[in-house]
User: Fold these one by one.
Assistant:
Number 1:
Amino acid sequence: MEPHNHHPPPFYYSQRAHEALLRAGPRLKPLQQVHAHLLITGSHRNLSLITKLTLLSCAAASIAYTRRLFLSIPKPDPFLFSSLITSFSKNRFPNDAVLLYRRMLVTVPSLRPSSYVFTAVIKSCGELSALRVGRVVHCHALVRGYWLDSYVGAALVAFYAKCGDLVSARKVFDEMPERTVVAWNSMVSGYEQNGFSEKAIGLFHQMRDSGVGFDSATLVSVLSACSQVGALELGCWVHDRIGDSGYDMNVIIGTSLINMYARCGNVSRAREVFDLINDRNVVSWTAMISGYGINGYGREAVELFDRMRARGPPPNDVTFVAVLSACAHAGLVQEGRKAFASMSEDFGLVLGMEHHVCMVDMLGRAGLLSEAFEYIKQLGLVKPAPAVWTAMLGACKMHKNFEFGVRVADHLLAAEPENPSHYVLISNVYALAGKMDRVEAIRNRMIQKGLKKGVGYSTIEVNQKTYLFSMGDKSHPETIAIYEYLDELMKRISEAGYVPVPESVMHELEEEEKEYELRYHSEKLAIAFGMLNTSHGMPVRVVKNLRMCKDCHSAIKFISVVTHREIIVRDKLRFHHFTDGSCSCADYW
């Protein structure tokens, strides 16, 4: 019998619960037979038996049936509450765990929950990103005296990190008297997942130096952090530790290594790892295709995609974003059209905005501006996503079609008027078109709105330590040597034929000021530092947070000639591999 309305159910039916019920069908039937037997024999009054049946029902992923069993118990005891909360959390039904915890506090107010209950509820709050509820549970744990418990502490670190409150996560972490590997992993992954990869790597170094043993979860988080900042040396060290520790090259570790090598510009090593994975899934295939694409190997990306279609798992929507992006950056229009058509025709996948952006980008980069614009109009969207107009405007700038670009600029500002990067791009288009009055108007609008251009910076890893440079940066201890060497480099490449590209800086500057501004861009400073501090013949790898300007692209091609060094730059959009005066992008970027 269902309870009266004044007794709120401990959890609700949801789409996930219904899906779980369907999955549980074969496992649930024996439990229902046991339940029927208990009812017939009168054994359903035995609290121990009905508790075991309820927990087995939860483990079988039948939330609806678990609810019925729980509500049939007149007076649930503390053991049932605790066991069921823990089981809900373990079986990934976080909402139900939190609601049952709340009911437990009302039903048995004198109950002192165990550390396992607090750990389970805090973990569930993290999965729900329920920051306010989790803070309340944190207070409960403190009142109950669990502030020194290592399990509760580790769960709190993970909870705050998942909710994006890294200050609270670090405070809990620092106050833990004994930090388990789980707590270290939670803090490292919290930094990494929230975009603070340098802090994640720094904490990993601290973890390693303190003698704490790390596990595969630690290494996966560190590899992800390495991929974000281009820390290839540390990534290779982690790869060696994986081999030395005897970890299997499973799909999780393997895919993390593929991403790390690909996003650090070492595609050949990424492919070696890919070929070693026996149980490749759609994520590992997609990672390798994406790796080829962002490094400028469009044809290899398409070939691997064709192989995936023939012998691998069915591609998903992310796979198609990877292959379409690869085609866009390599100018493979026909291959891109074919892949795009197969997405819905062969695999029945729904087209998303990311796929439309890739198509506009591909057509625009290929110079098919009119077709790209018609494609946007045929989308039938009242207000296309800003990324669509950004791709279109970038293509107009690339092909110097400023008349078209001015029209597109109005659409972009209407779509996202508070994004400062749009104003910078539009200002450049207006300036190149000679419309200086509009340049001034755009900059005045930015001032009125309080918008500021993002600060560009570049990072480089030397001896497993990451160094950051900004334009004209003089904070580094080796500043004098760096500037002297860069000045020498600029003199050598000028003698080799390099000519500054003045359109890369503000148009109102005098020519001499423009050359000074161009000379000390962050990527040039990072490259000079790298060459001073690495062995001759070693590649120099730099990561830039913004798109590389045309002048730096031209200058670095010449630098690769006069120094006989390979230079790899990862900017906001893609990789540029400079060797002997040429770039892997073939100037198609």
Note: The beta strands are 457-462, 465-470, 540-544, 567-570, 575-579, 582-583.
Number 2:
Amino acid sequence: MTSIDNDPLFTSLCNEKTLQSQKEGFFNEFYQSVAENFTGKSASWLQDVYKKVPTDKERLRLIYEDPVVAYEVQGTLEHVEPVFRGKDAKFSWQRREQALKLLAENKLQQALIIACQAVMRAPGQGVDRYIDKGLTLALALWTRAEVFIRQLDGKRALQDLQLAAKCGLPVKQNADYYARVAKCYALSGENGRAEVAAKLFHQLSGHNDYALTRLKEDMEDLRVLKQETQSTEVERTLPKLAGEGESSEIQGASTKIKLAGSKEDPRGRYVVAASDLGPGEVILTEPAYAACLHAKYYGTHCNACFSRLVAPVGCPDCCGVAFCSVACRDKACATYHRFECQYLDLMIGSGMSILCHVALRMVTQAGTPEKVIEEGKMLRDTFCAHTEHRDPEDHFKRTLMTAFLLRCLQKAEFFGRRTTEAPEPTEQELEVGAVLLSALQSLQFNAHEVYETRITGEHRFDSAKVQYVGVGIYRGASMFNHECYPGVTRTFLGTAMILHTSRPIPAGAVVPENYGPHFMRQPKPIRQRNLRSRYWFKCDCRACVEDWPQMDKLPDKPRLRCPNGDCGNALSYPSKPSQRNVKCNKCKQQINLEASVKMLEASDQLCTTGAEMMADERVDEAIELLKKGIALFAQAAHPPHKPTLVAEESLRSCFADKGNANRY
């Protein structure tokens, strides 16, 4: 590391940012109180004792046993207790009453917001029998279902009604229940089921013919209103991989890419094209191995799949997170959330980074210590940690964070009911802690930010902005090396990552990703500094070696490609038609560049037309035109070229529109 780290202070700041908040949270105070013990007389403890311990597991053991730090570490960890916001039946009842009032005033969107709050804060059936006879959650769902019916959303209304029934709402002799069910089916176009529900209503209402007639009139009115209202919801699915199915060596990848290199190679293992790749090919569709939502989106996005919340479903015990469906909730509560539930607010209060939460999630989602230890071997083999290069103080901070997270796991009974309240770990707990500590190091280099496209205006592209909502770790995607001019675009559907090629890549060539510093947006010195300090390598990609200018300083015309066979030499663009006959200084042949100039003009025109299709929101047509324009440019010229770079970014926007895209 010393050979590339020429800015130790900035590197230290980058390392710290991946671990904790510098301004808030109690972890920093925890570290300072422990660090005071190895200053002064014990100033050399980190170098002479801690650094010389050979493994993560033994370093973790050391901080519980070495008298220099053990007392402070164990004394602090003994105070770890659950911190979370529980349910509140009275609050839920108050919100339900407000929602009903807003509903009567036909303020549907406001009523929905308040009804959702009522649902999220309501305790489960029978928890608080002094309010609503223990049916607060069922009644909150009942109220929200009525809001959805008024909003012509039969699908979500029916889901709430069915969930209300599971939560104790009496339905056997409840005529009103079947009246609402009938309206839901009418809105969903399921007329047969709507008629069955209407008949049940008729029976339970004492065969009240007048009430049945009124119900059928309401159902017909809802059908008419639904037909007049254009639905904006689009069913989104993962695209099909290019090539012949999925690779056997790269998780979620196409057979058109493969691994090259080795752990001993300075570049490590990396991805190359197994066959020629054109622009816009799907080369990876990979679910996250683990992913965590940023805490500020806990109230707006599903904690499990990151989808935008419309009808949130809560955890049975806490109010800290929300889910988009019962399926997401049940999956989370059966795995990771049952261990994180009561400690989420404590972890947020510690000031730990979201990468620390992802490290914890890699453990909690496994469900058992045995599974964590088994998975840990694979994780260490897949994700580089660069432990040997890490500064001992930074490593010690990560070990201390591991101890805090391990204590949360102990208290949450991840290891089962313990025989002692002392924080000192057992051998099995140390093994799990070692996996955590390895993850806290490797996530710095391997995690990916998960984003959505936020559309805030009428036009889906003009008002679109990228918003990062979480962080994920991906086994397949981690194999891609960085270049400042990437060959792929990264988009997301839920927490699944999708990689499309953004330009042609010949067989055998590296398929590069981009870790953030792009030559269009940052000059070379800034990119190099960021990559050295954040990812610990010196970039020698083509954009860095040739020191390509940023977007606003690019020349109007690119260098043309020598059309003679496989020569491919870069030739200056002829400023006059009379200068199109030149001699290539590489292949020594006399070359006519007329065809290359015309191909470049055709490429620019295709990209321009693609942009016009985007302006008309004709996304699929735009994609095809942009792909053709980018491919034609690669035949005629060398990057960088402003119109083609714009086209590549436009292609990313089109693919992102088919993933996590939400109107606000």
Note: The CA atoms of residues 183 and 219 lie 5 Å apart.
Number 3:
Amino acid sequence: MIKLIPKDLSILSANIKKNMFTKRYKFTVAKIVDDKEIVQEHKYAFGLHNFSNVNLYTSRTHTCNQLRTEDSGKSVILCGWVEYVRLNRFIVLRDGYGSTQLIIPENASAELNDFVGKIPLESVLMCHGSVKLRPADEINKNQATGMIEVLVDKLQLLNAVDTKLPFQLRKFNKANESLRLKYRYVDLRYPEMQYNLRLRSKLLMKMREFLINHREFVEVETPTLFKKTHGGAQEFIVPTHEKGKCYSLVQSPQQLKQMLMVGSIDRYFQVAKCYRDEGAKSDRQPEFTQLDIEMSFTDQNGVMLLIEELLSFIWPSELGKINTPFHRMSYEEAMLTYGSDKPDIGRSKKISNWTKYLPSASNEVFALVLKNSENKLSKKQKNDLETLISTNYPGVKFSLLNIKSIKTFKENLLKMFNGIDAAAVVDAHNISEHDFVAIARGSKYKALSALGKINEHFKADNSCDDRWRFVWIVDFPLFEIDSNHNIQSVHHPFTQPQTEITPNNLLEVKGFHYDLVLNGNEVGGGSIRIHDANLQTKVIDSILNIPIETISHLVEALKSGCPPHGGIALGVDRLLSILCNTNSIRDVIAFPKTFEGKDLLTGAPTEITTEDKKRYHLKFDNTQKT
């Protein structure tokens, strides 16, 4: 007789938990840690079999993705969410691991059949039953458990959905992202989200395993409440009850890990939460996670080798192998070749310098020739690209040309560039009808960057046999001119210069900085640090004009016997996003913010109370700007 227990579950659950907690307490006291003994105890207590670690300390015997043909005839307990109900007889039960079909016996009571038909989707059930093989014509080859089904003996309604869910979990009809983020606790049930978060957990565990067990690193947690750092990204300010005094949320543990090197923690790492108030950016989060690493007595090659070995160790076997050592490319070569300091070396096309075809030129001329790409850019896409380039590179003159006739193309070239050897251009670059040509002239790196944006747009059309395209970008400039014509650090002011800095070579000197790029995305960046207090003071105070007192704690540390050191940070969110092939890093974060920095789940940021304003001495200007 099939039993239906929708009401008395709390008593059953309490009894189960009591048994579980008693055994766990006993194990703790007796210090029994052997898995086999624990499994035997659970088999004895519940009359169950085939336990695995994933089911220890739970009410179930198997997950909804575990049962196979060899389990036929076994008595099992499954727990999960109701994914489908069909004909009041078939239930697909889903958990975080997969799904299994349950079948109500033909001799079941009318009451049970009626109940099954009324179970709201996504309600939580516990099923007691036995495993049976499906008939040959009912096997589902698209389901891991598709060879079997569970014949229901007893159903327990653990929790019925008593609200209208905002969306159903269907692959073919996904809700928009805003709705998914608002109801993230439902969205997390998607198999893709389960896979992404479980892969994230495994990779973080493997990172720790490699660094601690295989390379003798020490995991050290550093504060997130810190002192505001001048330069770099905008930081979040945290008011305190001391009037006029604020903390800042760290944009990275940079200074703290350098001081750990001074303190003889010579091999440091942590999985660090970092914060940057960078406004609306589609591929950024105001809070993000990075694997932060620092070593003493190392050099650039040492850090890069460590990361190559680390990634080889953690790389999921189902995603294929990565080839090491990674290709290396200077910043200059990357910009001249691809127009980007994060090139996708397998799919981006190479840029050509056309200046040599001109009798004279005040600015260099660069071009990108894309074969058979005449019709791959819609009018809207072309307008969007033109707007993007005009907005970001206002001094660059550029042309986007669809080659319908070689004769017309040559005529257009002569109109744009007086005296250009158009025939030599066509011959040297094998330009033919139906090609697409982008031409840019102006300030060297801005013109190249403009073509890099176009390259990025077209790279999806270019195939590549190498699935994982890693490249190290090295030899970055140490300084650059900002929009206000001031000197600023290209990365941060703690990078060791490759040569002596003089007033005459500020824009020529290169730093020991290195970025790791994967498939055209920056997934890591680091540098060898300045460990000499006098040099650090010169960079901060004399060159960047940052008040030295804002960083006096680090300068004092460098004076106290600081070893040569360097490190790197890997962007965990972005790396996972590439591995999981997601459209956004938000799909590999459990509870992300929108690209505008809003938390749709809770409505944060929200207004604070009058009491909080008084405690933190805050007064807001509520006047409306016109």
Note: The domain at 198-319+472-625 is CATH 3.30.930.10 (BirA Bifunctional Protein; domain 2).
